[in-house]
Amino acid sequence: MSIVGVEKLVYGSADLAAGVKFHKDWGLDCTRENSDGADFELADGSVVEIRPAGDPALPPAVIDWAPWGRSTVREAVWGVDTQSSLDQLVRALSGDRDVSVDADGVAHTRDDFGYAIGLAVSRRKPIETPTPNPNNIGHFSRFNEPAVGSRREPPQPLAFSHLVYWLPDDPKPYRSFYMDKLGFRLTDEATDGSAFLRADGRTDHHNLFLQRSRDGYSGFQHVSYEFRDFDAVMMAGLAVEAEGWKTNVGPLRHNIGSSLSWYVWNPAGGVAEALTDQDQISEDWQPRLIDPGDPGFYGHTWVARKEHVGISPAQWVD
Ligand SMILES: [Fe+2]
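# fe (ii) ion complex -> structure
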């Protein structure tokens, strides 16, 4: 059985119009919109749904995160490689929790903290993107050809990379649901129990980060979208800033996972991250133990704006 990544996110947004506009500005393709909300597609066919926070069809919100109110992800649906894998997972989960399967074959349940998750046979499509082909001294890979990043093309979110959830206490007890039941593997962990996990059908540094909140917060913290390259990340961040949306932190280079990232507050809930160039992990990898208080090991290798030095993803700064 393989979980192959995030398939769909469903937000309940206290300000529906703002939640919808943000995702248009983020570069997502709006496939449906009416007074009940809007649906968006990434390039690989994965989906974002924005609904009003009061929509009774949504699972209840699980969030206690000042300064956020009712806006949050209400369900995250993970894609599974085959119907047979999905059936196996549903049987395994049904042993100790309620699992319902809807008319579309999507299974719905909750993790051990109470966050609503779904499982569905993946319908995502392979993505083909032009190779950036950088020219570095001694490694020229592009002759007689302008750089891909020099094209005046709108940046496009290609696929989901990862999700992050706050946990108000030690995340270790909550890992087992994802690792033992859903097959996630540990890539790196922190001394406070926070865990970077990758799905068994993926090689990204992490597809899920369970992060302990020093402030006791719970709730969906951020979603990361994979973009073609750093040019696309920069263009996406600049485009949403130009529309008035507020950067949380970025652009920057992480040293854990190595991604080039830009985080923007999302009015539908939490933060949206534009990401590229993350580490890929094989079975040869040995998980590392990270001290989150060690600035030499954890945090940003560089950040473009001096006011963001020392600011973490999802850290609210007035
Ligand atoms: Fe992230």
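# post-check
The first strand starts at residue 3 and ends at 13.
The pocket of fe (ii) ion is lined by residues 162, 164, 222, 224, 273, 313 (CB under 6 Å).
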